[in-house]
Amino acid sequence: MKTAVVFRFSAMGDVALTMGTLATVLKHRPDLKIIMVTRGKFVPFFNNSPGIEVFPCDFEGEHKGPAGIIYLFRQLQHFRPDYVLDLHQNLRTRFLKALFSLSGKKVFSLDKHRAEKKQIIRGEHHIPVKHVCEQYLDVFKAAGIIESTIHIENLTPLFKTSGGVKRTVDQWIQQENAIPFIGIAPFAQHKGKIWPLERYQKLIELLPEKYPGHKILLFGGGPKEGEILEKVARKYPGTLNLVNRFSLEEELELISRATCFISGDTSNMHFAAMMGVKVISIWGATHTLTGFGPLFQPEQNKVEISREVLTCRPCSVYGKEPCRRGDYACLDWLKPETVMLKTE
What is the DSSP string of 3-21? Predict the structure, then answer.
């Protein structure tokens, strides 16, 4: 059996998306063992997946600083890897790759297509960058692990939850009478990805007309988002705030039960898509052209102002740059009724 050490440390959505690639690789190479090196909090993405062993790294503890990276390298050497693959391309992985190269191992790295993304943002062309999961797959191809003709396959659900997690979610659903439900994740890390909250609230008012008997479950993270969503949940009957109610693995299992999931360009969008749920994705400053669209979702499930109407779109790969117009029209012009129609 061959062994591949694979690096991807962050961000959450990018780490989760590696499962879209790893599942395809392992389907074609069941003889391969993958050592997934990532932060401990992301272990649930890879739980219960045959062929994958997670090695948690701790960059605030034992793997902090250059000495910590050297220690991590020595720990990973014990696996005697046949392949070393970098799906991240940051300072830490470059250091690790240098150490593996000095030890005689061949290393293979992600091409992030930065130049192509910049050209899209500058409006020089609108040729799509291949999806990030295909970019990850290219690293396995370069290493000779899989054939060059292989592409990402729809193997959803991609996250495998345990029997205990399923029982916990079942009990909660029964207790709250929460099936069927529609999931909504209103927040994102950057403003350029966040549809105004009042629009989400209007949508919550509209959904019962089309989906009678459905609960609305609100997803998010952190105390600030939790406080805001708790106020929203109290305002609308049949709406529940789930922030900090579940572990990551439990949340993945719960998302898999949704009738559909509504979200901006967020990690939760990817979670739902990778669990095989219909995703209505709302796009503002960012765009699927740069390679981060929800996996296996048809184009008609996207909600966005066309580039013909707003020629400034997309203005950012990650949504963190301030709006050039100053009014975030790409998000503000989107109507709840439009999102509602997409759920059909």
Answer: EEEEE----HHHHHHHHHH
